[in-house]
Amino acid sequence: MRLIVSFLTAAALILAIAPAALADNIQLSVNSSFIANIESPNDNFWGEYSTDRGLFDLPSLGVGGYPAANTFFSNVSVFVPAGDVVTSATIQILLPTHEVLGTGFLFTEQAFAPPDDWNAPSIAPTFNGNGMSRVSVYLDPQYAYFKPIINGDEVSTGNLNLYFDLLGTISDSLKTTGVNWDGYVSGKGQVNIPYTVQLDVAYSPVPEPSTLALLGASVLGLAGFARRKFILRP
What we know:
This protein is α+β, with helices and mostly antiparallel strands and 234 residues long. It is built from two helices and 15 strands. It has helices spanning 2-21, 209-232; strands at 24-40, 48-50, 54-56, 60-61, 68-73, 77-79, 84-94, 100-108, 126-127, 131-139, 149-151, 154-156, 160-171, 174-176, 185-205. The strands form four sheets. Strands 1, 4, 5, 7, 8, 10, 13 and 15 form an eight-stranded antiparallel beta sheet that branches. The protein has a three-stranded antiparallel beta sheet with strand order 6-12-11, with no helix packed on it. The chain has a two-stranded antiparallel ribbon with strand order 2-3. Strand 11 (149-151) and strand 12 (154-156) form a beta hairpin.
């Protein structure tokens, strides 16, 4: 009798775990990029320059707020095999883990801070206009949740509006240094921001009712056969 119980238990376990054992997943990664315009406006940032120290305290991005950059990503889809069902789906936006380098240049505004020596003139520096920008890219947390669209055997990202926060600096080489020190130095530039949209889909087969009925009938038949053999045994 114990043999019969063990057999029935094993058969039930096979029926329960068979779909899970056949589960699979699909991962679609789409690499893209866009050009972001960056700036360090004079009403927020400043730099100091002197004849003895040269250029220091570079105009920065992301001080007092996060300059936002945004782009549009068009829908992409994956299809699971016919007869399978989607069990989970997620969208991830993968960004560079290092600073991204771009172009940049600095220029002075009309408003300058007073010099250390009030009797000395305050002369603005000039720049060569061949500088660079160094930018770290982050996904804006206010717009960081994306829900895939599941329609039968099709899973789609939908059209995504992606918003990024940028931190970094803009630098340039000095053409002429200023006398004493001058504030309100602005910067502008461009940077190419790469990113990856990753769609992960997990799916598993759905047993047809006829298959379940056939397996169930087989188990019951074997159980009845084993029981009858046990009763007729001398």
